[in-house]
Amino acid sequence: MPGSFEVVRILVVDDYAPFRAFVRSLLGKTSNLLIVGEASDGLEAVQKAKELQPDVILLDIELPKLNGLEAALQIQRVAPKSKTLFLSANQSWDIVEVALCTGAAGFVAKSNIGNELLSAIEGIFLGNQFVAPLPPVNVAIRHEVEFYADDAGLADGFARLAEAALKVGNAVILIATELHRTAILQRLRQNSVDVDAILKQGRCIPLDASETLSKIMVDDLPDPARCAALVGGVMQRATRAAQSERSRIAICGECAPTLLRQGYTTAAIRLEHLWDEITKRYNADTLCGYLQSVVPRQDRSLILEKICAEHSAIQGRALGY
Question: Is there a single domain that holds both residue 303 and residue 175?
Fold first, then answer.
């Protein structure tokens, strides 16, 4: 980073509060990086940039009210000395090119920020353009996380993912609480998905989170062998049921969040790590859904950082197909 006497003033713009918290935690480890403000939409970003005149603006692209690309153009007029660094879940080179055409100083994929963000801030602060290498297009799997405000939001997010996967002939493994499974299947029915047919075909495999945990836990920790055996068996069932030739399995998971809700923080983080290792053997994508209320207030930033570190991306909306 720049010399310790130089304080870099940073504005963080993202509509997803847990992601902003993760960035705060990450930057808080470096003494001369000072977050002077946050914004949750594009219009607020322009207003805060004008008011605060930060050195660096960390800017998401998909923002409400005014998208990040348009916000960047307006920020150039009201805060011409501020340098914009885009952080985006989109990993397309086309998006990178469009983003840089706004006059932005850099672009980092959200899945790379743990490794690249500090270097990117240093680079653009020193007057360089920074574009981190994007993850390969043919990534074997995605293991993503989203934090939801309430039960309805989680059910909606999981239902959107399940519906999108089912529509293209893929299979869905739904590991959730009884309350959430009922709500998800109800939403699918409301969206004209023939739930009874896909259950009969085996293209949707609903599992209870607590029952699943009882099969893989030993001494309050997930057992690698038991977890591998359970995942392998369910994956085989889902693969046989999938209708598309190049099928992917979509998994909506709530096991680690259930452990966190029960107070088993270490077990939850360990299960996320173990799940990532095991599912790399399969053509499967996983979305882990956490209710924001289950994250303990004590050591919240540290827990969020550890959970997010076990995932390939932090989503502000459900994983799409």
Answer: yes
Is 28 inside any structural domain? Answer: yes
Beta strand pairing status for 204-208 and 171-176?
parallel
Q: Give average pLDDT by consecutive 10-residue segment, the chain, 321 residues.
A: 70 90 88 93 96 96 87 93 89 76 88 85 89 60 89 94 88 96 96 93 95 95 89 84 72 96 95 88 87 83 88 62 34
- In this structure, the answer to whether residues 92 and 187 fall within a common structural domain is no
45-68 confidence digits (pLDDT tens): 999 999 999 999 999 988 888 888
Angle value at C-alpha 188, between 183 and 191, nearest 5 degrees? 125
Average pLDDT in the chain: 87
Residues 124 and 81 in one domain: yes
Using DSSP, state whether 175 is helix, strand or coil: strand
Q: What whole-number distance in Å separates Cα of residue 303 and Cα of residue 149?
A: 17
Of 103, 131, 159, at which residue does a domain stop?
Answer: 131
Contact by Cβ (8 Å): 28, 305: no
Count of structural domains within the chain: 2
**What CATH code is carried by the domain that includes residue 263?**
3.40.50.300
Query: What residues contact residue 285 under an 8 Å CB cut-off, 6+ apart?
Result: 141, 142, 143, 144, 248, 249, 250, 251, 319
Contact (CB, 8 A) for 233 and 202: no
Is residue 289 assigned to a domain?
yes
CATH number, residue 115: 3.40.50.2300
Cβ pair 113, 107 in contact under 8 A: no
pTM for the structure as a whole: 0.61
